[in-house]
Amino acid sequence: MSLDSNVITKETLIRSKVHEMILHGVLCPGDKLPSENELAELYNAKRIDARNALVQLEKMGIVYGRQGVGRFVNEPLPAVEFLITGTTSFSEKMKEQGIPYKSRVIYADYADDKEQAKYRGLLGADDVKIFKVSRLRIVNEMPCAIHISYIREDLFPHIYEDKENLTSVYTYFKAAGYEQLRSKDRTLSAQFPTLEEMKLLQCSELVPLLVFETDTYDKETNDCLERVKILYRSDLFKHQLSDEN
């Protein structure tokens, strides 16, 4: 890597300085930001650098613009306190906090060939069909997470016929007799959203997603029931991590 690649550009400098002013309370929600010309002069930069910096802050949801007036500091979105576990349903966690919540199934069918191959291997079920269920989690009337389950069909042979009743997969598991569940091999990572994820979550490309993945096992049989992948909007959750036995 060349030394030049580590040089901080004027655009990055302006974006970082304005963001710091907001984080430190120098600029508060509703306050008007300095103009592009003022920022360019302050940091000895071109106006286009200041404009690009402010556009990025808009895409991050930190500021908003009013045509012909200027840009202002956004009210921070309310963050949902959320304990990351693999064996309590999302709906139960929201009910415990009294938070308005809805779940919408956006896909319920067999996974495509590529996903079949991948998740058969991960679930240790080489000769088994994998059924995919994707749900959009809506909290306080705002789309906030995409919850994807890759489920072994051999353990749930009627899942295709039951696909209209999969708003809560854990409820479905319990109705099938799997009541003692445990989470295993949990991972947490971050990524930027794809175009489809941006559309579903109503966010811009600069809002990072936290990606939680885990396997769900039945405690009694030690069967691996599903592989879970959840994509959370990072600006809408305050995550807690907890050990599980």
From TrEMBL:
**HTH gntR-type domain location, by residue?**
8-76
Q: Which GO terms describe its molecular function?
A: DNA binding; DNA-binding transcription factor activity
The family database entries (Gene3D superfamilies) matched by this protein are listed as: Chorismate lyase-like, Winged helix-like DNA-binding domain superfamily/Winged helix DNA-binding domain
- Transcription as a keyword of this entry, yes or no, is yes
Annotated CDD domains = WHTH_GntR
Q: Which GO terms describe its biological process?
A: negative regulation of DNA-templated transcription
Keywords, A to Z, come to: DNA-binding, Transcription, Transcription regulation
In Pfam terms, one family for this protein is: UTRA
Full protein name:
GntR family transcriptional regulator
Task: Report the source organism.
Answer: Jeotgalicoccus coquinae
